[in-house]
Structures are given as C-alpha cells and as structure tokens.
C-alpha cells in the first residue's frame, strides 16, 4: 500500500482529532435529526390524523425498513463500499425530509388516508437511510479512536435536544395562530433538510481528508479491510494490494457474533425498554396534568436532554462502566422502570413522571456509549467494522421489539 510520508504512523498522522470529533458530532446529528423532527412534531400529525396513532404507527413503519436493510448490510459488511453507503444514506435522508415538506405544501396541510400513506412511505425511506448511515458510520468509526463513536452517538442525542428545543420555541411562538402547528412542523423539516445536506458535504469532502481519519483507514486497509478503499482513493491514497482478511486471521462474522453476544443483547435490551416507553407512552398514556398540551413536549425534551448528558458521562473514565457482567446487570435492572412508569402514570404527579423520563434518557445514553466503545476493543480493523454493524443490527432489533411492545400500553382502551 502506498502512502504519503506525512500519513505514516507518526504524530502528524494523528492530527485533526478535534475536527474529527466535531464532524462526527454533526454526522451523528444528521443520522437522526429527520426522524426526531417527525417524533417531535407528532402533535401536528395527531391533529391531521387523530385516529391513526401517528407516534406509534410511524415508528412501527420505520423499523421494518431499517431492520431488513441492516440485516442485508450486516451480512455483507466486508464487501460494502462504506463511502457509497454513507453518502447514499445521508442523501436519502435529505430527499425524504424535503419530500415531507413538499407533501405538506402539496396537500395544503390536509389530513386523510392519502397524505397519511404518503407520510408512511417517506418514513419507510427514513428507515432505509437510518440503516445505511448508522451501520455504516458505527462500523467505520469502530476501528478509529473510541472518542469518535462517543461523539457520533452524542450527535444522535443532540438531534433530539435540538428538535425538542425548537419545538418548545415554535409552540410558544405559533400557539395562538390557527396553523401554528403546521408552521412549526414545516420549519422543523426545512431545518432538518439543511442539516442532512450539510452532512453529505461533511462526510464526502471534509471527514476523509482529516489526517487522523486517513491514518486509521490506512491502518484498517493494511489489516485486510476492503470497505475503506473508496474513502482512501477519494483523498489520493491508493491501495496497491489489500490482502485478504484470511491472511490476517480475521474472525468470521459468525465467530464475532458469538464472541460478542452479550454486548449485542445488551444493546437489544437497552432499546427494547426505551422504545416501549418513548415516545408513544409519553404521548398517549401519561394522563392530563397542569402543563396541558405542553406536558408531552416537556417529557420528550427532558428525555432528550438527559440522553445527551448520559452520552458524555462515559468520558469521565472513573465512572465509565466497562465490565461485561456489570453492563448486563445494569441493563437488566433498568427494566424496573416498566412498573415505575405504570404506577406513576396511574397514581403519580407530573414531577415524578419528569424524573422517570429523565432517568430513562440518562441511562439510555450512558449505557449505549459504554457498550459501543468497549465492544470493538482488541480486534483488528475489519473485525471492528463487522462488530460495529452487528451492534447496530441488534440495536435496531431492540428498537423494533420495543416499538411493538409499546402497543401493549393501550390494549383495552377505547381508541385501540
């Protein structure tokens, strides 16, 4: 493999870490901001489609597309051109988000089954884009420094904070307008479209040129990775001959699956619990309180704020949980939140509910980053890429299961 002298494994090759962290943060935000915008303006969709349970149905539509796409790419991860995969994902996010704006303008904010099916179709595209980007990015970052994955995951949570903050502002600004909800929703989707376009630019033209990124990708290529060839070629680094993974003793996908089954199940269980409560339960099962229509928005905002805080907590090494058994115990103990939410919704006041939602977000962010940064350690570049894809696959499986279980909260209700 030929490389320029300044890209060798010296100190100069590791320059650009801060810039890399910033770019990863924005790329993380871009991988979720469109979907979070959909969730945050759910009150608008409840107004348009009051009988279709938008928060629950749209989430359920989203997940099969994400899951099937992720299954395909996880199985073929060693053959996938990561550059094309990620650029395609961000481009699809951009097109789908812009499509929501065009659909709403074209129907003049009308309800009915036609526009609802159109929204569902675009949400399905979100699911495909999510699998392309999250699996591709986590796999790509898995063989770089752990701080890059942490920053990417923090960006995911930042998307929620951004959309929640904007939603509170737009609700206050437009609440007295007849079409205030619609104006807020269109503003959200327009901002999301811009951010997705920005991510295309950052990933395609900025991230590959950072010395630290070129160093890690070159290192992965020297260990047999074929997924980084296009990214290296884009910055003028030619891989004359990338050896087969077998020559480096790479573990098979099945072996990696078995060796990391506890980490994979950890992520599955984290998101089974989170998505069985967030967002559907928070919109439909928390009753009437003094905050009125602001109540679900405040709950969503508190979840998002504490989720991003939780994703930065592992940066403090003394409180980062790295024990495999410790992670599993903490994740299983988190299921005590199910009865806690049930009895708080039935008997508690809004203060206790806000506390529980905050803890749900904090634990979700903290445990997610702990698992994703610990699991790839000790493996070679191609193996770390495979592990990253497997972890995202189980994360999406957990989300899908959680979304399905979320319907149990409304069984027996009149509007089921």
UniProtKB/TrEMBL annotation:
<keyword id="KW-1133">Transmembrane helix</keyword>
<dbReference type="InterPro" id="IPR002259">
    <property type="entry name" value="Eqnu_transpt"/>
</dbReference>
<dbReference type="GO" id="GO:0005337">
    <property type="term" value="F:nucleoside transmembrane transporter activity"/>
</dbReference>
<feature type="transmembrane region" description="Helical">
    <location>
        <begin position="55"/>
        <end position="75"/>
    </location>
</feature>
<keyword id="KW-0472">Membrane</keyword>
<feature type="transmembrane region" description="Helical">
    <location>
        <begin position="351"/>
        <end position="375"/>
    </location>
</feature>
<feature type="transmembrane region" description="Helical">
    <location>
        <begin position="294"/>
        <end position="314"/>
    </location>
</feature>
<feature type="transmembrane region" description="Helical">
    <location>
        <begin position="113"/>
        <end position="133"/>
    </location>
</feature>
<comment type="similarity">
    <text>Belongs to the SLC29A/ENT transporter (TC 2.A.57) family.</text>
</comment>
<feature type="transmembrane region" description="Helical">
    <location>
        <begin position="263"/>
        <end position="282"/>
    </location>
</feature>
<dbReference type="GO" id="GO:0005886">
    <property type="term" value="C:plasma membrane"/>
</dbReference>
<feature type="transmembrane region" description="Helical">
    <location>
        <begin position="326"/>
        <end position="345"/>
    </location>
</feature>
<feature type="transmembrane region" description="Helical">
    <location>
        <begin position="18"/>
        <end position="35"/>
    </location>
</feature>
<feature type="transmembrane region" description="Helical">
    <location>
        <begin position="87"/>
        <end position="107"/>
    </location>
</feature>
<dbReference type="Pfam" id="PF01733">
    <property type="entry name" value="Nucleoside_tran"/>
</dbReference>
<feature type="transmembrane region" description="Helical">
    <location>
        <begin position="387"/>
        <end position="410"/>
    </location>
</feature>
<keyword id="KW-0812">Transmembrane</keyword>
<feature type="transmembrane region" description="Helical">
    <location>
        <begin position="186"/>
        <end position="207"/>
    </location>
</feature>
<feature type="transmembrane region" description="Helical">
    <location>
        <begin position="154"/>
        <end position="174"/>
    </location>
</feature>
<protein>
    <submittedName>
        <fullName>Uncharacterized protein</fullName>
    </submittedName>
</protein>
<keyword id="KW-0813">Transport</keyword>
């Amino acid at each position: 493999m030929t490389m320029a002298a300044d890209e060798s494994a010296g100190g100069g090759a590791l320059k650009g870490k801060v810039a890399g962290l910033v770019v990863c943060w924005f790329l993380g935000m871009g991988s979720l901001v469109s979907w979070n915008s959909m969730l945050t303006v759910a009150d608008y969709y409840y107004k348009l489609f009051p009988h279709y349970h938008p928060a629950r149905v749209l989430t359920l539509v989203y997940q099969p597309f994400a899951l099937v796409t992720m299954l395909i790419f996880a199985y073929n991860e060693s053959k996938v051109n990561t550059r094309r995969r990620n650029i395609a994902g961000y481009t699809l996010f951009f097109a789908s988000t812009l499509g929501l704006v065009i659909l709403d303008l074209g129907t003049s904010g009308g309800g009915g089954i036609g526009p609802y099916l159109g929204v569902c179709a675009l949400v399905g595209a979100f699911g495909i884009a999510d699998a392309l980007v999250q699996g591709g990015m986590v796999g790509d970052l898995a063989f770089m420094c752990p701080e890059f994955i942490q920053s990417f995951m923090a960006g995911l949570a930042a998307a929620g904070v951004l959309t929640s903050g904007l939603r509170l502002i737009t609700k206050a600004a437009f609440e007295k307008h007849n079409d205030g909800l619609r104006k807020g929703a269109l503003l959200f989707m327009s901002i999301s479209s811009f951010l997705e376009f920005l991510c295309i630019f950052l990933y395609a033209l900025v991230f590959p040129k950072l010395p630290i990124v070129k160093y890690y990708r070159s290192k992965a290529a020297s260990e047999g990775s074929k997924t980084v060839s296009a990214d290296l070629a884009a910055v003028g680094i030619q891989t004359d001959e990338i050896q087969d993974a077998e020559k480096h003793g790479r573990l098979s996908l099945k072996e990696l699956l078995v060796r990391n089954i506890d980490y994979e199940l950890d992520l599955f269980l984290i998101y089974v619990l989170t998505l069985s409560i967030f967002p559907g339960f928070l919109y439909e099962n928390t009753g009437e309180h003094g905050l009125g229509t602001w109540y679900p928005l405040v709950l969503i905002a508190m979840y998002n704020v504490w989720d991003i805080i939780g994703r930065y907590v592992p940066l403090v090494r003394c409180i980062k949980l790295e024990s495999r058994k410790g992670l599993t115990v903490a994740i299983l103990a988190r299921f005590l939140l199910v009865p806690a939410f049930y009895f708080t919704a039935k008997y508690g006041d809004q203060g206790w509910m806000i506390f529980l939602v905050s803890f749900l977000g904090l634990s979700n962010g903290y445990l997610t980053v702990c698992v994703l940064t610990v699991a790839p350690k000790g493996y070679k570049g191609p193996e770390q890429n495979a592990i990253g894809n497997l972890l995202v696959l189980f994360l999406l499986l957990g989300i899908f299961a959680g979304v399905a279980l979320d319907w149990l909260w409304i069984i027996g209700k009149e509007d089921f």
